[in-house]
Amino acid sequence: MDFLKDIWNFLKNRKKWWLAPVIIVLLLLGVIIVLGGASAIAPFIYTLF
User: Fold this and answer.
1) pLDDT, position 25
2) Distance CA 32, CA 26 (A)
């Protein structure tokens, strides 16, 4: 969680709010890939791509 706090502090201090959507999309894609690789819902996730 320290990594996420560091990212949040970077965005807040440097006023780089345009990076927030990019980071959120990357995190969501990472979660989808992790779920798609090792779960029972993998066939349903693969149809999205």
Assistant:
1) 92
2) 10
Give the global pTM: 0.58
With beta carbons less than 8 A apart as the criterion, state whether 45 and 32 touch.
Answer: yes
CB 45 within 8 A of CB 35: yes
Q: Cβ contacts of residue 32 below 8 Å, gap of 6+? A: 45, 48
Residue 12 in 3-state DSSP? helix
Say how far apart CA 15 and CA 49 lie, in whole Å. 34
Alpha-carbon radius of gyration of the chain: 14
* pLDDT means over runs of 10, the chain (49 residues): 84 85 88 73 69
